């Protein structure tokens, strides 16, 4: 029988926006507050908000933050009797101006022909529609650097798009279109300066998002697990393992996307085994899929045989009890493993040096926080059973040599 761990598959979808944003709550609040304040007090919406990420980092919640802010903003304004809608436009792959206008028109459910119409005609239809319906529109232009870098949209057109009402004054004097621009990183600002310098000074609010720490990822994964996994099918420990693997503060990529995918893969593996809960080994396999050549056999072959015996001891203890292993236990396990292979265990100082080297090589982790001090863990992206098998072969080879 197959286990039933994933209760809501949709929660693991890449485009899923959680009902509350626990991490980045302050950022969301600030975007919402600034725009709603403006609309309520002035009756106008012309704001340009820009969100950009840390250089070289993806999956850090830029798109999610923009969508979440737009959804909540429209909910909050609705309570005050103000209607705001949003249009999400993904500018990846360099769309033309017509593509962008089509997306906006489509999101509004407007029935006007875009192709064949001029920019001014289409924009006027949109502006008139908003005026008649007394609605506001927030356009999210995601992957904005795609527009800036392409030559499919001229700087003039881009300017006209972002500053609609300079070209088409509103019939009732109320400006109703604002933008959230979402870009990969700060370089987008340089492109804006170069291409549409008039717009730079009109950006009302700019937000720089850093990659996630392991603490952030823990919170995000915990929420996803609560929303999409059966109660009791996962432990605090396995969520922490994934969060630790990807946290930027731990040398990971800080990507929520990767962390959530790993949780999903681990859950799927557990289900495939027919189990009702996710094991540590499920997580190790899930993380291994995302690591390049997770067991470097050539590197292992080059290591001293006693270092390999220490690693073997950690792997054995991991398969028996899992989690963080007290060093004293690794030591006794090492002595046992040594005698099993007909070897005399090395002295304590040497043993500790092996541990340090193995941790420098990324094979082990040394516990540094309270409760983990003096403990060791096999690196989370290494499946224990695969490692034991590989080590068995290498050790038999090596010990046969003498
Ligand atoms: N703060 C957060 N809270 C909950 N889920 C998040 C958060 N940030 C990112 N995610 C999730 O991580 C994945 C990647 O986020 P996304 O916004 O697409 O990243 P980016 O646009 O920076 O590449 C999405 O599935 C998203 O739901
Ligand atoms: Mg994105």
Helix tally equals: 18
Mean pLDDT across all residues, rounded? 93
- Major sheet: 5 strands, parallel
Strand content: 5-15%
What class would the helix/strand composition place it in? alpha/beta
Tally of domains: 3
The CATH architecture designation of the largest domain is: 3-Layer(aba) Sandwich
Spatially, the strands of the biggest sheet line up as: 2-3-4-1-5
User: How many strand segments?
Assistant: 8
Using the coordinates shown, work out and report the CATH topology of the largest domain. Answer: Rossmann fold
**The CATH homology group name of the largest domain:** P-loop containing nucleotide triphosphate hydrolases
As a percent range, the share of helical residues equals: 40-55%
Give the cofactors and ligands.
adenosine-5'-diphosphate, magnesium ion
CA radius of gyration is 27 Å
CATH class of the largest domain: Alpha Beta
- Return residue spans where pLDDT drops below 50 for at least 5 consecutive residues: none
What is the subunit organization of this protein?
A: single chain
End-to-end separation: 49 Å
